[in-house]
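Q&A log
Question type: sequence-to-structure
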Amino acid sequence: MEPPVMTIRQIGPESPITAGNIHRITVGETSASLFIPEGFDSQKPTPIWIHFHTADWFIIQEYQRANYKLPILNFNLGQGSTVYSKPFIEIGTLQPFLAESEKHLKTKITDLNFTSFSAGFGAVRNLIQDTEILSRLKTVIQCDSIYGSLDPSIGDKRSVLPEHVNIWQPLITRAINRKSTVIFTTTQITPETYAGSWEVVQAIVEKNGGTMKPADPNTSASKDQIYPLLRTFDKGNLHIWSYEGTDAMAHMTHPRHLAELLVITQNSASTP
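Response status: OK
Response body:
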């Protein structure tokens, strides 16, 4: 896989959702939007893509930009990882949303695929602890969307809390063994009070006996003048791509290239 170029991409203003219909699904106090594209074939079981943390109109546009014509379930719950992790603390809490989606789709859901931005990682981190969900996961793409606490026992040295590294291991193992495709993209943003995305992925790589390597300077992603690709790690179907950028625009640029990431995974899946 060749990482995409993270060029600055302006979006908006908000535009109407087209080429399909939105259905609101509410379970308890949590609501999500199910997008069913025009021409969807309800006569056969279907995979579904589930996104965490982005406005409906934009995330649907990204999937449409990638020419995806599958159902999309979007959870746009607000700010902060807690609002995304809380609904999925208990095992089995995604299943009611899937069951309600199947009623609207009029067919069974087969494979699951997750994408997330920023705080949306809180949902993914909890959901991969559910072995039934994990066994159905085919693709996970997290756009600058993996954070953790700092280990207070280390003193002044920044180190990711081990439990916030270990908790990802079920997904990491699955990707390394080529049972799922997993992509993490990161900026170099280093929050004062918690671990940045680049720090968490580095800790994950080290836990799995690897090291982040300097990016190939000949790739297009490495040649971007503002947010070049800096470091990479690839093992099995696990791909970690760490880009330059320490400002808010760097953070926002990653979900604005979700379409390119979707195309990459689609092309990879179709390559024998």
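Response note: The chain has one domain: 20-270.
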